[in-house]
Amino acid sequence: MNKIEHIGIAVKSIEKSNALFASLFGEEHYKIEEVASEGVKTSFFKTGPNKIELLEATKPDSPIAKFLEKKGEGIHHIAFAVDNIESEIKRLQNEGFTVLNEVPKKGADNKLVAFLHPKTTNGVLIELCQDIKS
After folding, report:
1. First and final CA of the chain: distance in angstroms?
2. Residues 65/40, Cβ–Cβ less than 8 Å
3. Is the separation of the CB atoms in 108 and 35 below 8 Å?
């Protein structure tokens, strides 16, 4: 794992949260994107070298909707940048971590992603991210 790629925050309203975080960071978001396969709309902020991803549910049965219902708004996941997501998945499985999706899938912000089950990471949902090369 190279670095923290971003921190994901589950929100009820992208519009309201965009205004809140724009005030907090003194800058507007740089991208809004929908990932239909996950039932989520995302908004990205950059502050210094750090990125924050806001996540709003677009379907009532999406993972974000379930998270919001169970835990409310707040930190949803921490994402780490990796160079080779397939080899990192295998390495982590060999270390005993449970990978929620063994085959990486297309995520937001031009990334391939895979998630580690929080039961094997002290309650923190971990996302692996690899840039999709054009």
Report:
1. 22
2. no
3. yes
Which contacts (CB < 8 Å, 24+ apart) does range 104-111 have?
A: 104/128, 104/130, 105/37, 106/35, 106/37, 106/132, 107/35, 107/38, 108/33, 108/35, 108/40, 108/42, 108/44, 108/53, 109/6, 109/31, 109/33, 109/42, 109/44, 109/53, 111/5
Three-state secondary-structure class, residue 18: helix
What stretches of 31-127 show up as alpha helix (H) in DSSP? 63-71, 85-94
The residues, ordered by sequence, that sit 6+ positions from 119 with a Cβ below 8 Å of its Cβ are 98
Chain centroid to Cα 113, Å, comes to 9
Among residues 91, 133, 85, 119, the alpha carbon closest in space to that of 105 is found at: 85
pTM attached to this predicted model: 0.92
Rg (CA), the chain: 15
Q: Note the pLDDT tens digit of each residue in 71-119.
A: 999 999 999 999 999 999 999 999 999 999 989 999 998 999 999 999 9
Amino acid at 70: K
